[in-house]
Write a structure and sequence with these properties.
There is one protein chain. The chain is an alpha+beta fold. The chain has four domains: 3-87, Immunoglobulin-like (Sandwich), CATH 2.60.40; 98-178, Immunoglobulins (Immunoglobulin-like), CATH 2.60.40.10; 218-624, Glycosidases (TIM Barrel), CATH 3.20.20.80; 636-712, Golgi alpha-mannosidase II (Immunoglobulin-like, Sandwich). It is built from 15 helices and 32 strands. The strands form six sheets. Strands 17-18-21-22-23-24-25-26 form an eight-stranded parallel β-barrel, surrounded by four helices. A seven-stranded mixed β-barrel has the order 1-2-5-4-3-6-7. The protein has a six-stranded antiparallel sheet with strand order 27-28-29-32-30-31. Helix 11 (548-564) packs parallel to helix 14. The longest helix is centred in the middle third of the chain and has 18 residues, at 385-402.
Length: 713
């Protein structure tokens, strides 16, 4: 309800005055006195510093407010005995007050075989209760408040495995029903939390099947949506749009090519990046095909998404099936990166965080309105101690219980540096080769610039990777819908050739541009992700003078250079075969028909699949493509500009043993590019992929729109 629709309301201001609004429907003249009550006892009369009148209301500013106790319940009375609760939410916007409250105890429902402990952080609350349902009987337990930590705690004896529960919290004089933001299990539609016995759900996560992984540059990341990868109609995948769909083997396309999990195995990628798999808001668990959403509308961060389960009525189904999916990826040597969205919630006012702890979990501007660097209406305030604890605990939960191998942080720039670095430290204790990277964009937030986990603070986050939009824009060209006509070097604008040298070197060496990173492992080299137009759709606009055959050749070129550049290569599902989204730039809710992985097109362009597979194999086979040290990179690489906008990239020094020299020749033109070497070289890859026999030559004739790789023994 809008406060101006109420008869009488009072709000504490940051300057320790009280703002009062009285509707004229109650009285049509100014009040002369206001009194402050605490727990129904009058403690002082307040001074009316200012009063004014608008169309339907009288407005007052009250001063002489005594010191207030957090957690106590205050009311304001006027001289006609009308009263209202005092809204004290502003106190939890005060950094000094927020810093007072912290606990390292496990929050939410913490299960043991013989008892379950419930904890809820709510410093402003006067009282709190847990309502739990077990064996068809609903019970209520009053929680005890620790005023030093702001945490309510209670213990229920007995085995509460699978018990449903929620909290009742009394704040500012109102009793609010709210689900547990820390819930690790949920009922269908996320209406209640569920107590989970994770010890009964353990399975073999197959970590021992994972290949060695020494540095982020060993990774080849493939971004996909569980739903998109499995939802295409007419395929043999049985569990379409479900976690289990990516556990199925021996699934084939119409042309008998591998699809789903087998397709990912065939490509040879090392990591899958799963778009949101936590519980999100805008998909109906019970009828998921009625709507579509990627999942960047977070609801509950610690529980898998219900619509990806085969049996949402069983709260354990989504947990077990996600575990099986991760375990299956591990079984076949593929690590799992989880896309996490801790920077904002779907709806601030209705979020569990706001209901149990108003104003604490979100950032605000000086005028009291929410900071909106996320452009989703709010920002999670990761700097507050219990907010930071929530994010760190949540991340550790996914690693411990689901075997997650890395995190991709959505809008990472909105999370403070200390939080991200701490997550990396704690996760690496569990998995030494854990990777973290994210969108380090410079967003318009109230978080100070020097504390943002953005790309231009990469020197403060040496173990964190960043999506390198400089790589994208120089290699391919701009991606926003207003700039799709802007071409990068590989799409035919040779003015970017020096910039391309810079990004090829991992954006960590001063060549054409200042370095972005301390070493190449911080550069996530990408030209396409789930956001913005696909490269195919861009080419239809930027290179409209070319035919589709040329577009697909350029896509091969771009994919090859993403895989061969220094840094961490990143592929978006479908870019390897030039999938289109029919020109939709932001397809987050555009439905399965636009977003699904099209296995029919995969069949038509199977040569492109094999091309990317070959380049992946080359990167994995030769360690010098994965070097991250900027000093070594700068010593071993030489560039030479060629005719037709071509570029010769030469690898030298002892780092490329057993070879004396390795060359990559890029021809981004429509003409044959001729280059004569001083000695004979062996051509091991060209526009057709790997040449398994190798071709010995001195004069290279690079075909139009091609990448060529040669070795000299």
């Amino acid at each position: 309800m809008n406060k101006f629709d109420e008869i009488f309301n009072a709000t504490l201001n940051a300057n320790h005055t009280i703002q009062v609004h009285v509707n004229k429907s109650y009285c049509n003249f100014f009040a002369k006195h206001f009194y402050l009550y605490c727990d129904d006892i009058r403690i002082s009369e307040l001074n009316i510093q200012d009063r004014r009148e608008t169309g339907h209301h009288f407005h007052y500013v009250l001063t002489d407010v005594p010191a207030l106790t957090i957690g106590a319940e205050y009311k304001i009375y006027d001289d006609r005995y009308l009263c209202c609760n005092l809204d004290m939410n502003v106190l939890l916007k005060d950094e000094k007050i927020c810093s007072l409250y912290y606990t390292d105890e496990v929050m939410g429902a913490h299960y043991h075989k013989t008892f379950t402990t419930f904890r809820l952080f709510s410093p402003l609350a006067k009282s709190a209760y847990v309502v739990y349902e077990f064996n068809g009987i609903e019970n209520i337990l009053a929680l005890e408040k620790n005023t030093d930590t702001g945490v309510f705690v209670g213990r229920v004896n007995g085995d509460l495995n699978k018990a449903k529960y929620y909290f009742l919290v009394r704040i500012n004089g109102e009793l609010v029903s709210v689900n547990d933001p820390c819930a690790k299990g949920l009922t269908s539609q996320s209406t209640k939390g569920v107590v989970v016995d994770f010890s009964s759900l353990k399975i073999n996560m197959n970590d021992d099947k994972l290949p060695s992984f020494d540095a982020p540059t060993d990774a080849i990341i493939y971004e996909l949506s569980v739903r998109d990868m499995t939802s295409m109609k007419g395929t043999s995948i049985r569990h379409k749009g479900k976690f289990l769909g990516l556990t199925e083997t021996s699934c084939k396309s119409k042309n008998n090519n591998p699809i789903g999990l087998d397709y990912l195995k065939y490509l040879g990628i090392t990591h899958v990046q799963l778009m949101p798999i936590f519980d999100f808001c805008t998909i109906c668990d019970e009828n998921p095909t009625e709507s579509y959403n990627w999942g960047y509308d977070p609801l509950f961060y610690n529980t898998p998404e219900g619509s990806y389960s085969t049996n949402v009525s069983d709260p354990y189904s989504r947990i077990i099936e996600l575990k099986k999916m991760v375990s299956t990826f591990h079984k076949y040597g593929i690590r799992v990166v989880m896309d996490v969205v801790y920077n904002h919630v779907f709806n601030l006012e209705n979020s569990c965080f706001e209901k149990i702890c108003p104003s604490y979990y979100f950032r605000y501007k000086e005028d009291g309105t929410p900071s909106n660097g996320s452009f989703c209406g709010n920002e999670f305030n990761s700097s507050h101690p219990m907010a930071r604890k929530f994010i760190i605990d949540s991340c550790l939960h996914w690693v411990k219980e689901y075997g997650i191998d890395g995190f991709r942080f959505d809008l990472m720039g909105l999370i403070d540096i200390d939080t991200i670095n701490q997550i990396k430290k704690e996760c690496s204790k569990l998995k030494p080769n854990f990777i973290i990277y994210g969108e380090g964009w410079d967003m318009p937030t109230t978080l100070s610039s020097d504390k943002m986990s953005k790309m231009y603070n990469a020197n403060k986050m040496l173990e964190i990777g960043f999506f390198n939009d400089r790589y994208r824009d120089i290699a391919k060209g701009k991606s926003s819908d207003m700039e799709l006509c802007v071409k990068g070097y590989l799409l035919g604008d040779y003015n970017y050739i020096d910039g391309f040298k810079h990004i090829f070197l991992g954006s960590c060496i001063p060549l054409a541009f200042p370095p972005l990173f301390n070493d190449a492992s911080q550069s996530i080299n990408f030209i396409e992700c789930h956001d913005n137009a696909t490269i195919y759709d861009k080419l239809k606009i930027s290179n409209s003078f070319e035919n589709e055959e040329s577009w697909l050749k350029r896509i091969n070129m771009v994919n090859a250079m993403v895989l061969l550049s220094f840094g961490v290569p990143f592929l978006h599902a479908g870019q390897e075969i030039g999938l289109s989204k029919n020109g939709v730039h932001n397809s987050y809710n555009s439905g399965d028909q636009i977003n699904h992985f099209d296995y029919d097109i995969m069949d038509q362009r199977w040569k492109m699949v094999n091309y990317v597979k070959d380049i992946i194999s080359i990167r994995k086979k030769y360690p010098f493509f994965k070097i991250k040290d900027k000093n070594i990179i700068s010593k071993m690489i030489e560039f030479k500009n060629l005719s037709e906008g071509g570029l010769l990239i030469t690898f030298k020094q002892e780092y490329i043993s057993p070879f004396r020299q390795v060359d990559i020749i890029i021809n981004p033109s429509h003409n044959i590019l001729k280059y004569e070497f001083d000695e004979y070289h062996t051509l091991i890859a060209n526009e057709n992929g790997s040449l398994h026999e190798g071709v010995h030559l001195k004069l290279l004739q690079a075909n139009p729109l091609s990448i060529n790789i040669t070795f000299k023994d």
